[in-house]
Amino acid sequence: MPITEEIVQKDFEVEIQSRIDAERARLRAEAGLARMREFKKPVERTFTGPERDYVTILFGGLTWKHEEMIKAVFHGSGYLCENIPTPVVDDFQAGKEFGNNGQCNPTYFTVGNLVRHLQKLEQQGQTRQQIIDNYVFFTAGSCGPCRFGMYEAEYRFALQNAGFEGFRVLLFQQTDGIKAASGEPGLKFSVDFGMGMLNALNLGDVINELVYQVRPFEVNKGETDRVIRESVKTLTDTLRDRKRWHIMDAAPSWAKSHLEKNKKIAGISCTLGKIGHNLYGKEYVDALHTCRDSINAIEVDRFRVKPVIKITGEFWAQTTEGDGNFNMFAFLEKEGAQVLVEPIATWIAYMMFVAKEGAKARADAEAPYRDPKWYEVKKRLANDLKVLKKTGGLSAGSVMWNYFYHRTIKHMGDTAHHLIPQKELSRLAHPFYHQLARGGEGYMEVGKNVYYTVNHLCHMVLALKPFGCMPSTQSDGVQSRVVNKFKDMIFLPIETSGEGEVNAHSRVQMALAEAKSKARAEFDGVLQKTGRSLEELREYVDAHPYLKRALYKVPHHAGIAGTAAQFAWHVSDLMQKDRAYRPRTGAPIPIRRVA
After folding, report:
1. Across the beta sheet with 135-139, what order do the strands follow?
2. Which of 88, 199, 290, 586 lies most in the core, judged by the most C-beta atoms within 10 Å?
3. Where do runs of H (alpha helix) occur along 362-376?
């Protein structure tokens, strides 16, 4: 057999690879790494269908509004479910005791929270084996330059150290945790379950914002919390108890025989019907309107001058409402501020946008045909089609996600903030932070800071983040340049941990003093420009009680951030247009002076 050039080349490559392997083995032996083995994730017992009747799903980490909604969807889908209480400092200490060193603040709080909850179950009389067999923990998984990607391993390590080895931790992204390796999966993502979760997240976001929008201005202290709890119960009862729609129940008798013969058409019809019923069903929409009317009945005084503080930062630190962020929301309200919270919906929109833009950026590298000529139409179309397959679904998903979220806002009074287009956030952040630089909130921390400042939607931006969080530290380095460019910006980053609450509150108070001054100057400026006194404005509002309703929509006036200033300008406009109105003093209504 003749020796060809190809055979010689192949033998040469084999020889080179064998020498490389031999040298690698020698170096490992010298370094004492000869027995090094690749890490393999431990095999975990799956959650299967037959266990649904006695296994309880545990979850936590969000606001109590979100968690009550999610629990209702689980219960309505036939699962046993409990939400773990909001983490406290003792949970942080337990996380440090049973977990690894060098973890971030959310890791210690959430891990310690789960461990202590299981310990409480044990104290109530259950054995450890019963707890391991009868409970699973459901949480999110991730990857990238953040310790969030190691949460799963950290949960298992801490549980093992606490004596609960074998306790199951299921991840959203973990295939075996959701779909059992064999047998029926324990957690099935049906249409009803998926649409229920969509409604739960959206309702949790909107209700959460309404709490912080209304409570600072309530006339009767404590009324907002009472009404919100009643509203949450109304919504959770609806999510849990509503009748599950099915095509065979809704179809007329003459159509049922045809549907039974054509399973494919029946399946598609049933799916579309379930989606429509979950989103537009009378029972669900009526519950939204009942809650809207209850919240709207709360009497508010919008003339209270309060600085608007926009919350940004790391996902968990900016969401939790307890010791994990130094109880910052309650502290801000106590200090006389109005808190503008961030919805979970923004994070989901961000993930879809980054996935789409990443696919576009990798298009040339992943194209089936490299650098096709202008006349190679088929190759160019093939390349474009591959990109479209990846980005088309994400684009459609983004449009639908925004629509469903804004639809929830509309049914709940239409006063909550709409989602900021991710493209706009990316554009504003681009001079400082690239949109594909991953980790934490990516470009959003910078983009939100610029967006809320230049559009006059807040007086101060407060970024809450874990101590030593790499993505947040990276963002803070960029924010120094952002603040230098926007001189009127008040930006304060606060690193959270299990200690240091007094110091953090002190720093916030100093920045808050400047924000309060800014809000007061803004309100006084509106009074000066409109030529009205506060007494005149209050007199008009007293004569028109609908202006005291909690969900009365005040139009946004460009260049004004504060609720009191916005409302004063709006009431002045109403007085100007209301020719039938006369003050009790009988004085004529002044003409607004031009600024």
Report:
1. 80-83, 56-59, 135-139, 168-171
2. 199
3. 363-366
> Which two three-digit tokens encode residue 358?
């990443």
Q: Report the distance separating Cα 301 and Cα 549, nearest Å.
A: 9
Does the pLDDT at position 181 exceed 60? no
- 538-554 b/e (C-beta count within 10 Å ≥ 16 → b): eebbeeeeebbebbeee
Q: Given strand 338-340, what is the order of strands in its sheet?
A: 338-340, 308-313, 460-466, 491-496
Dihedral over Cα of 541, 547, 550, 553: its sign:
negative
What pairs with residue 185 in β-bridges?
48
Q: Which two tokens stand for residue 194?
A: 């998926």
Residue-wise pLDDT for 227-273, tens only, equals: 999 999 999 999 999 888 787 777 777 777 777 777 777 788 888 88
Of residues 350, 408, 351, the one with CA closest to residue 198: 408
Residue 553 CA from chain centroid, whole number:
25
Distance CA 96, CA 74 (A): 31
Which residues touch 491 (CB under 8 Å, ≥6 apart)? 449, 460, 461, 463, 479, 482, 483
CA-to-CA distance for 317 and 329, rounded, in angstroms? Answer: 11
In contact, 220 and 100? CB cutoff 8 Å:
no
**How do beta strands 308-313 and 460-466 pair?**
parallel
The answer to whether 345 and 405 have CB atoms below 8 angstroms apart is: yes
pLDDT at 223: 97
Distance CA(400)–CA(410), nearest Å, equals 15
CA separation for the pair 247, 255 (Å, rounded)? 10
| Band (587; pLDDT cuts 50, 70, 90) | low
Indicate the residue type of 131.
Answer: I
In degrees and rounded to multiples of 5, residue 540 shows phi and psi of -65, -40
The position carrying tokens 């690239």 is 434
**Helix, strand or coil for residue 498?**
coil
| Two tokens, residue 439 | 């980790």
Rg of the chain (C-alpha set): 29
CA distances from 136 to 34, 43, 164, 211, 459 (A): 38, 15, 12, 32, 43
Provide the pLDDT for residue 252.
77
SS (H, E, C) 133-190: HHEEEEECCCCCCCHHHHHHHHHHHHHHHCCCCCCEEEECCCHHHHCCCCCCECCCCC
DSSP 322: S
Q: How deeply is 359 buried, as exposed, middle or buried, from its count of CB atoms within 10 A (0-12, 13-18, 19+)?
A: middle
Q: Is the dihedral of CA 271, 272, 275, 277 positive or negative?
A: negative
Confidence grade of residue 39 (pLDDT, cut at 50, 70, 90): low
Upper half-sphere CA count for residue 339 (Cβ side, 13 Å)? 27
Distance between CA atoms of residues 297 and 228, nearest Å? 12
**Contact between residue 115 and residue 94 where contact means Cβ atoms under 8 Å apart:** yes
Q: Give the whole-angstrom CA distance, residue 371 versus residue 367.
A: 9
Summarize pLDDT for 401-425 with one digit per residue, the tens: 999 999 999 999 999 999 999 999 9
Asked whether 247 and 264 are in contact (CB, 8 A), the reply is no
Q: How far apart are CA 129 and CA 135, in angstroms?
A: 10
Please state, in angstroms and rounded to a whole number, the distance separating the CA atoms of residues 404 and 409: 9
